[in-house]
Amino acid sequence: MSGGRECRESTAAPRRALLLSCLLLSALLGTVHAFSLFLEPLEARFEASRSEISLTYSFALIALTLGVLLGHRLYRAFPAPGLVLLICTLAAGGTALAGAAPTLAILWLGYSLLFGFANGLGYGFVLHVAGQSSGGREGTAMGLATAFYAAGAAAAPPLVGPLLAAGGGAGGFGTAMLLLAAALLCAGVTAAAALRRAGFVFLREERGGQPGAAATAQADGARRATVPLLWLGYGSAVTAGLMAIGHATGIARAAGLDDAAVLAAPTAIALANMAGGFAGGLLLDRVATPRLLAALPALALAALLVLALLPEAATALPGLAVVGFAYGAIIAAYPAAIVRRFGAGAAVRIYGYVFTAWGLAGFLGPWLGGLAFDASGSYGWALALAAALALLSTLVVLAGRRRLA
C-alpha cells in the first residue's frame, strides 16, 4: 500500500511542478492584454496618433492568432523543453526590442510580430501541456491556465503603473519591457526544467479509433462536420463578450457612473474573467459539454439584455462583471471541450483552427460596438447586437449538441 502511494506521489510531484511553471508563463504572456497602459506613453515617445499606437495591439492579436493556428506544427516536431525555451527567448527578444525601439516600425516588429507570435505559440503550448498532464481533469487544468492568462492582464496595472510614473511614461515603457523580457527568460528556464523532469512528450494525433481507411475517413468526416459548429459557437460567443469588454469604460460612463467607478470597470471585468476561466474548466469536468457550452453564452445574453434595456448605474458594473465571467468561462471551456471530444493529440491542431474565430472576434467585436455607438449615440444597439450573437452561440450549440457530446 505504501509503495503504491509513494509511486503516485512521485508521479504527481513533477506534474504539479509542470502545471505551476505553465501557470507562471501563462500569466506573463497574458500581460499583452494590458497594452492600453502604454497608449499615452507611446504616443508621446513616437509623437504618433492614438490610432497608430493602437495598431501595435491589433497587429499583436493577429500574430497571436497565427501563433495558436500554426503551433501544432511545432509542438510535436521539437522536444518540449527546447521548444518552450525557444518560445520564451523569442518573446523576450521581442519585448526587449520593443523597449529600445527608435521607431514605430521597430516597435511593431518587436512587440506585435515577435512577442505577439511567440505569445500565441506559448498560449497554445501552455494550454495543451496543462490539459495533457492533468491526470484526467483537462477542464480544471486548462481553466487554470486561462485564468492565469487573464491574471497577467489584471496584475499588470499596479506593477507597471509605478514604472511608467518613475520613468516619465516613455522611459518607463522601456524599463517595463526589459523586466518582462527577463521574467520570460526565467519562466522559460523553469518550464523547460519541469518538462524535462516530467518527461513530457506531446501525444501524436490518432486518426480514427479502428484500424483501416474506412475508420479514418469516418473520423475525419465527423471532425469536418463538428469543427465548423465549434468555430461558429465559439466565435459568436467571444465576439459578443468582446463587444462589451472592449467598451467597458464607455458603457459605464453612459450608465452614469462616476470617474472612480468608470476606471474600476476594466478591473471588475478582468477579475470576473479570471474567476470565469477557472470556473469554466472546473464545470466542464462535472457538466455535460453541450449543456455548459450552451449555458455560458445564455448567461452573457441575460447580462447583455439587462445592460441594453436598463442602462443604469446600479446595473452597469454587475452586468459587465457577468459578461466578463461568461467570457472567461467560454475561452476556458472550449479548448478543454475539444480535448475531451477529439483527444489530446488531435486537439492541438483543431483548437488552432477554432481559435481563428477569436482572432476575428478581437477585430470585429470592439469595432462593431464602436460603429453601433457612432450611429445611435448610445450603447443600446451595440449591446443588443452583442446579445443577438450570444443567442446565436447558444442556438448553434443546442443544434449540434449530439456532435459535441
Structural commentary:
This protein starts with a helix and ends with a helix. Residues 1-10 and 208-218 have low confidence and may be disordered. The radius of gyration is 21 Å and the shape is globular. Helices cover 85% and strands 0% of the residues. The protein has 16 helices and no strands. Helix 1 (2-30) crosses helix 7 (138-166), helix 6 (104-132) packs antiparallel against helix 7 and helix 11 (259-284) packs parallel to helix 13. It is mainly alpha-helical.
Helix proportion: over 70%
N-to-C span? 37 Å
Mean pLDDT: 87
Distinct helical segment count: 16
Radius of gyration: 21 Å
Principal-axes shape call: globular
Low-confidence stretches: 1-10, 208-218
* Number of distinct beta strands: 0
Strand % is under 5%
Sequence-ordered SSE layout with sheet pairings:
Layout: H1 2-30, H2 39-46, H3 50-70, H4 72-75, H5 80-99, H6 104-132, H7 138-166, H8 170-198, H9 213-245, H10 248-254, H11 259-284, H12 289-309, H13 313-342, H14 344-376, H15 380-399, H16 401-404
Question: What are its keywords?
Answer:
405 residues, 16 helices, globular
Entry summary:
The protein contains 16 helices and no strands. By secondary structure, it is mainly alpha-helical.
